[in-house]
Structures are given as C-alpha cells and as structure tokens.
Amino acid sequence: MLMIVVIVVVMLMIVVVVVVMLMIVVVVVVMLMIVVVMSVVVVVVVLMIVVVMSVVVVVVMLMIVVEMSVVVVVVILMIVVVMSVVVVVVMLMFVVEMSVVVGVVMLMIVVVVVVMLMIVV
C-alpha cells in the first residue's frame, strides 16, 4: 500500500516539474516572438520615415524650382513638427509594449514561484 502511495506521489511530482518546464519554455518563446515583432515594427517605422523624407525632399526641390521660398519654409516647419510628434508617439508605444511584457513576465515568475512553493509544501 505504501509503495503505491509513494509511486503516485513521485508521478505527480514528475508531472508538476514537466508542467513548470513547459511554462518556462512558453514564456521564453513568447519573449522571442515579442522581440521579433518589435524589430519588425522598428524596421517598418524606419522605412516609413525614409519614404516620407524622400517625398519631402522631392517636394521641397520642386517648390524651390517654383521659387516659393516662404511656402517652403512653412512646409518644412510643419513636417518637422509632424515628424517629432510621430517619433514621440512611437517611443511611447514602445514604452507601453515593454511595460506590458515586463508585467506578463513578472506574473509568470510569480506563478512559477507559487507552484514551486506548493511542490515543497
């Protein structure tokens, strides 16, 4: 009878350990996916900025050819303001995403610790 109980307990312990390992693997995979997504977002943003800047350069060149210097100055100022706002927004979005990721990771760690404590008890 005792042997059966011991065997069952050992099996349960093994199952719990495997589950914890799987959770850790899932966390790592999610982190990697988030990193990949972030890098893709960065690349896309950089490409967008490059495209916008090239368009702006072409427009400015054309306007200079037309010799509307006042309009050119106003347009350049407007573009600078818009670009700075975009950059700030993108930075804020990255900060928010990172904080969410950190929060999720902290939760996962807490869960793992609780599970470990339960195993010990």
Using only C-alpha atoms, the radius of gyration works out to: 28 Å
The N- and C-terminal alpha carbons lie at a distance of 23 Å
Strand tally, please?
A: 0
Question: What is the string of helix and strand elements?
Answer: HH
Shape: rod-shaped
Structural class: mainly alpha
Mean pLDDT: 78
Helicity, in percent? over 70%
Largest sheet: none
Oligomeric description of these chains: single chain
Strand content: under 5%
Low-confidence region ranges: none
* Continuous helix count: 2
Folded structure, characterized:
The chain is mainly α. 97% of the residues lie in helices and 0% in strands. The chain has 2 helices and no strands. α1 packs antiparallel against α2. The mean pLDDT is 78.
Key terms:
rod-shaped, 0% strand, mainly alpha, 121 residues, 2 helices, ABC transmembrane type-1 domain-containing protein, 97% helix
Question: What is this structure's SSE topology?
Answer:
Layout: H1 2-66, H2 69-120
Helix pairs in contact: 1-2
Please provide a brief summary of the model.
This protein is mainly alpha-helical and 121 residues long.
